[in-house]
C-alpha cells in the first residue's frame, strides 16, 4: 500500500466511523510497521546503550546528550540545550499545528552506575542477548538482529545491558515510533515536546528549576513519562502517580560507651530494649502505624476502589511471590495498601553480630526509617508527627551525641535527623489524559492497559511533575523482572516491541 | 635485724599475743622486705613480659612454660608438665609439712593477642613506664628501676605491656613473695601448689580434664586465683565467684528477600517490628526480665545484703562513671544487681544503616543475646526458658532458613541457636577461706579488702573451679583502669607493690 492508498483508506474510514483522527492507523498496520522497524530499532538501541551513561561523569552526560541532539535534529525537531546549575538538559520540540494540543514526553537517558564484575557479561554497555532456560537461568544466544527486515523473532529473548529497561529501551521505542510515522509521511496527532534528563538516577535535581526558569518552553497539555516498569503481570501499564518519600535517622542512646555486659548487666540499661519499645509502639501487629493523624486525609472512594480491583492481581499471588504467610492489613487490596503512607525500618544496628559479636551493652541503636508519602500526607507533616510521637514516649531530643549533662539528666535520649526526598504526585483516573492514553494503547495492542492509581515507590520526578502542574501519566514498557538498578539489567524483546506499538498508538491518537 | 634477732622477736610476740603462726612477720617488716625486693621484682616482671604469650602459638606457650619451669625449680619446687589434649599445663608444688593444709594457687600466664599498631609504644612486650598527666594522657618516663635497692618510687607510675595486669604482674608478685620468704629463711605457712595456665584467654578448655585425670595432684584445701582486676575503688579486693554466660542467636524472618520499601510498604510485614515486639516483651521498663521463672532460685539473705552494702561504691557513682541517668531496678545496690542472671542484647542488625542505607524492607533481623548466669540459674535452664517464652509469643522455630512451605504457612518465623559458655561459680563469704584471706590482707596492708560475692563477668575458670570442688577466691591485684584485653594494657606500680605485700601476707598467714 502506497502512502496515497493509505491516505485514501483513512478518508474512507473517516467517512464510516468518524474517528480517523483518533485511530488513523489500523492495528494491523501498526503491527506490520513495527515488525518491519524492529531490526533497525534494536540496532539503534544497541548503539545508544554502548554510550556509558553514569550521570556522575560529565563526559558521559555530554556523549549521550550529543547522541540525542543529533537524533532529534535528524527527525526534524528543534533542539535546545538547557543549562542548569548542574548538568544540562536537552529539550526537543516539533510543532505540528499551533491549534493542536501539545504533549510533553519525558525520557530518562542516564543509568545507574555499573559494577562490571557483578555482571554476567564482559561489558554492561555492550548488548548481550540471552534466553531463559527451563531451570530459570539465562544462556547467551547469537545476536538476533537479522540483516533484512521482517524476520520473525522470539519475544521471550532478552537484551542485557545497563539502561536496557531504565530507560534507553523505552526512549528508543519512542524514537522508533517517530521514525515509523516519518517514513510513512504521517505526523503526530498533536505537537510534541520532549525533555531529556541525564541525571534521573541522581535525583533530577535541576529539572524543577529549569521549568521555573523557562515556563513557556514546557507549556503543554499533558506529560507522558516514558519511564518505569510494568505491573507484575507484565500487562501494558499506565501509572498515574507515585508515592513520595521522607527519611528519618534515629539514634537511641545508652551508656557513654559500650559496656561489658557482665560488669554492667542488670545495671546499665541497654538502649536496644528502649528502641524496641519505641518501635513496637509505632505499628500494631497488623502493620498499621499507630502515630495519631498519620493517615489523615487519605480517603478512597468506591470508584477508586473499583479501579484498584481491576488491577489483575491477588494478595495471595503477591504473598507467594515475596514469601510471606500474612500481609499487613491496610486496605482491602494490594493496590489499596499503596494509597496510604507507610513507615518502614530500612536499617537497624546496635553492637555487633555474627563473627564480630562481643559481649557488650551497646552505647546506641541506630534506626533508619523511610516513610512513603501520598499527596494527602506531605513529608513535612509526617516527619513532624513522628517526632511528636517520639516526644510523647518521653524522649529528650539531642542534636547529635548527648552532652555529659544530658546523659545524667535524661533517661531517654534520642537524636532525630530527617530528610525530605521525592514528593508524591498523582493524576486522577477517568480524566482526559487517562481516556486518551487508554484508548491509544487499547487500539495499538488490542487490550486495555492496567491502570494503577499510584506506584508504591517514589520517583525523583515528583517536584518536576508538581512544578509543571500538568496531568501526568507514566507509560511503562519494560518487563517487571528486568533487574533495573542491579547487575544484569535486561529488557524482554516482546516488551520492546509492544513499547513501539504503544508509542505509535499514542503518537497517532488525537487528544479529544 | 638479723634472722636470729627476728626469730627471737617472733618468739617474744608469740609469748605476748599467742598469734605467731597467724602473723609471723609484722607489717613493718613485710613493707621493708617488699620495698627492698621491688627493683628485682620489676626487673623480673620486665623479663617475663618480654616473652610473647599469645596462647594461639605453641612456640610462645613453650617459651613461657620453660621460663616458669626454671623459675619454680630455682625456688625448690617440684615441677610437673601436664599433657592435655591441647596445650600443656605446668604444675609446681612445695610440700612444707604433710600435716599442714595445702593451698592451690592459679596463675594465668598467657595474654590476649596484640595489635601492635594500636599500641602507643613500639613493642607491646617491651615494658614502657608512663606517668599520667593532669590532662589524663600518659607520658613516657625513664625506666624507674634503680641499680641499688631501697630507692623510693612513685606508686602512680604505670608499667605498660601486654599481660602487665592480666596476669603476669600478679604472677611475679607471687614469685617475689616466695623469694622474699626464701631470702629470709621463712617457709610458707602451708603446703603450696601452683597451677599455671597458658590458654586462659582461649577458654582454659583443658583445665577441667586435667583435674579429672590427676585428681590427687590437685588435692588442696583452698584455691586462690591470682587473676582479675580490683574493685573500681582500687581498694584491695577479694572476689568469691563469677557469673557464667550462655548466648543465643535469634533470626526473625521476614520476606524471602529484602523488598523495595515502596513497592511493598504497607503489604509485606517488616520483621524489625516483630523483633521489636519480641524484645519489648522480654524486659520491662525497669530492666527486669519478664520471662517466667528467669530469676527462680536466687535469694539474698540479710547477711548477703549487709556484705554487699560494705562494698565501697554508690549507684550514683557508677551511673556517673558510665553516663546514665537511671540504672535498672534489679536489687537495691549495684552488687545486688550482679547476684541475678541477666539478659542482654549485644548485637542487633537488619538491613543497612548510615552510608549503606537502602530503602528496603529487610528479610531478617539478627539478634545476639548474652545471658549472664549465677549458680542458681544454670545456662541450660535459662536458654530453655527463653525458648519457651519465644514459643509463647507465637513463633514457629526453623532450623536455619525457612522452607518455602514454612514461609507461606507461619506468619512468625524464627531461628534459635544457643551456646553455653563459662559456668557460674561462687564460694560463700564468712567461711574459713574468707576469714584466712581477709586476715592475711588486713595484716599485710593495714586495711580490710573489699569482698565481692560475685563479679558480673564470666571467667573461663568456672568449670575448673567447679571440678576441683574447693573453696575458691580471687585475690585481685591490678588497678581497675588497666585496659586489659585492649591496647596499652598497664599495671600501676602501687598495685604491684601492694600485690607483693598481699602475697607475702597470704603466704605467711597460717590457715586456722
TrEMBL record, chains A, B:
Residues 241-391 form the Peptidase M20 dimerisation domain. InterPro entries: Cyt/Met_Dipeptidase, Peptidase_M20, Peptidase_M20_dimer. It comes from Neolewinella maritima. Keywords: Hydrolase, Metal-binding, Protease. This is Peptidase M20 dimerisation domain-containing protein. The lineage of its organism: Bacteria, Pseudomonadati, Bacteroidota, Saprospiria, Saprospirales. PANTHER family: BETA-ALA-HIS DIPEPTIDASE (PTHR43270), DI- AND TRIPEPTIDASE DUG2-RELATED (PTHR43270:SF8). Coiled coil: none annotated.
